[in-house]
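Protocol step 4 of 5: obtain the predicted structure for the target chain.
Materials: sequence only (see below). No template structures provided, no constraints applied. The aim of this step is simply to have a reference model before the mutagenesis design in step 5. Sequence pasted as it appears in the construct record:
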Amino acid sequence: MAGSHDEYEAVIGLEVHAHLKTKSKLFCSCPTEFGSEPNHNTCPVCNGHPGVLPVLNHEAVRMAILSGLALNCKINKKSVFARKNYFYPDLPKGYQISQFEEPICSGGFVEIDDNGKPLAIKLNRIHMEEDAGKMVHVGAPGIWGSKASAVDFNRTSVPLIEIVTEPDIKCAKHAKDYVIMLRSVLVQLGICDGNLEEGSLRCDANISIRKVGETKLGTKTEVKNMNSFKAIEKAIEFEIERQIVLKKTGKAIIQETRLWDENSQKTFSMRSKEESHDYRYFPDPDLLPIILDEDYIEELKEFVPEYPLKKKYTYMNIYNLSEEQSLLLINNSAFTAYFDKLVSIYKDHKNASNWFFNELISYTNDLKDIHISPENFVEFLGKIDSDEISGKIAKEVLKKSFETKRALVEIIEKDGYKQITDEKELKKMIDDVISANPAQVAEYKGGKEKLFSFFVGEMMKKTKGKANPAIVNTLLKNGLTS
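Step 4 output (structure tokens):
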């Protein structure tokens, strides 16, 4: 869709569902692992059989509180689970246990970067709920038009938090940046793995438009099925433009749920959008309210790390990292922990950054269980600094360490990777190289100074790259001019 429409502005609210990294489901002991055989991780409780009773997972409550503390929310001392009543194939009980009038967290905000300055996106609430099952469709993005549909109940009752913004976002880019920053917070807290493709982090966007200067909200549509940051931005851009075109051509915007289709890069109607009263919320009679005391909330504050945006600015301003490098760190808690430790014990931050980003993480996406600790890596960098090994040899040693899982220093010491720095030994080799290449020596002495690199190369071949380059250069110049 072409063209911009300056007389209209978008109003966007986001609902982000984040799976909590608990080992068991919210109200039963079934495992939460992703990728199991369909309908394998289920039981009478999560499948809603008659006569069963839910038992609350306290670890999920702890994680929900942590999210609220990290996102500047008010932690409510009392919160209540409510039944959200609707019928859909992926909901075996006929209702979903959620929170409505009394959520676990209220208010709050998420700061994103807006051209180098923080911009606060206001939150309405964070509430806990159980997830529904997963519908799988063949031949279409939704149930309508599909050749066949099946349901997998493994995801049913997996604990999640829903983070709901106010209608506070004005453009698709800010929406994408919000989800990126929110993901960083949750990953750094260790409460969600943030995998959009696997569905452990899902974003729904409520989008409406209005004329600039108006305060009344327009008719909104909800957009689902956005499985990447890029998809979030593209889907919202498309939907804003679609609504503006409808307005300008005198057509009605229908309140509905729409699906983003990655192949066509368009949204498609899925179903009419319900209002909250359609769900007939009421307090779940099988679950007691959650009652929290201030001491417990204060204890959890100790587990909240530095806010990712602040950390990003620190990386860029103090360590001179690029924005891309800084984002890579704040979106991976293991990378953050490793890099922070590295620069705390190795003061050449530029060299540390170069080796970390250009070499170390090229071998692995996971530094949690890496066999090279930051202390080991600093010892390795010290070997380069002291000229015990060259940069080229160091790369070979690092590669060998990842292939064999052996210690870096052990490889240097036992496999003969130390640089040759003995001047007498190197001078003898240089004399041999000069004697073996009389024609090149004559040309060099005749003014063809570019041949100097030829002699350096011959020395490196002779020593298998182990000769100290600085010493070789000095001795070669003396040898070729004598």
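Step 4 remarks: The chain has two domains: 8-296, 423-481. Residues 45 and 52 are 6 Å apart (CA to CA).
Proceed to step 5.
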